[in-house]
Amino acid sequence: MNKENIFSMASESVINSDDKLALEALEMAKSKNIDLMELLSGGFSAGIREMGEKYASGEVFVPELLMAARIMKIITAEIEELMETSDMPKKAKLVIGTVKGDVHDIGKGIVCSIVKSNGIEVYDLGREVPPQTFIDKAEEVGADFIGSSALLTTTMVNQKEIERLLVEQGLKDKYKTLVGGAPATKRWAEKIGAYAYCEDASDTVETILKWVNEREALKEMV
Ligand code: B12
Fold first, then answer.
1. Which residue, by CA, sits nearest to atom 87 of ligand 1?
2. CB 149 within 8 A of CB 111
3. Name one GO biological process term (predicted).
4. Which residue(s) pair with 176 in the sheet?
5. How far is CA 194 from CA 30, 46, 159, 185, 202, in A?
6. Distances (CA, A) of 77 to 19, 84, 103, 195, 222
7. Domain tally for the chain?
8. Residue 66 DSSP class
9. Which of 151, 202, 208 for mutating ligand 1's site (highest number of atoms within 8 Å of CB)?
10. DSSP conformation class of 183
11. Which CATH number is 152's domain given?
């Protein structure tokens, strides 16, 4: 079985909510030394995205989405465990969560796994997180980044609220804010004054590591 077939198998397992097939695809990918992060974002995520299209066209409903989401959760956890990097020196700290009113946390979960596997310390606040909680946690742990995920056009305003609170509390320059989720865009990030919009998990890693490298270069200069 080639890489393409394994990716289709992964996608199909999410569409059919088939946990056995999902784990089989994972085993197969492992035996072929396929990059598991790629399998997660290219294979399994393709399945959940297709479910989104089916939902939008009225072909499937919330219960089917929930079953597909369960497969994503199982697989993300499995892959994260395989990528365990607890002894890696930590390069930066990220506080992350899904904003208040929003329960979509699959994408955030993927971001957490991939970011962690690149040596970034992650504090995951879960979902339906009030704006002030992001800031309180960042203050508590001395974070570098605050990342918020929003999947609904009605909840993305909470990303703006985080920016407003940071300004109000004189903390705007202390943290780099990252916004993500399907309705977020580069334009939205600019409009609300966020540090960056990240399209996906690898974009998030790139953005954080670029900042880490710039900080290192600055340290060397002084
Ligand atoms: C699965 C799903 C659900 C599941 C969520 C389960 C879970 N635990 O997450 C359930 C069934 C619970 C659900 C519920 C609802 N959903 Co829903 N759901 C989806 C669906 C199909 C997939 C979302 C997903 O997981 N995508 C896959 C991941 C991998 O992609 P992602 O989230 O975009 O994440 C990537 C990037 O965005 C980025 N990223 C994400 N977060 C972050 C954060 C940071 C900091 C950074 C840097 C990057 C980043 O990196 C990720 C990985 O690459 C989408 C369709 C879609 N196209 O998004 C609809 C969708 C988001 N849902 C929708 C709706 C309407 C709802 C409901 C209101 C339905 C209802 N009538 O009840 C409820 C809302 C509940 C609530 N209050 O939140 C609409 C939203 C419409 C809108 N414009 O607002 C969508 C778009 C479906 C549609 N086409 O209509 N949903």
1. 52
2. yes
3. homocysteine metabolic process
4. 145
5. 38, 28, 9, 11, 18
6. 13, 11, 18, 29, 42
7. 2
8. H
9. 151
10. T
11. 3.40.50.280
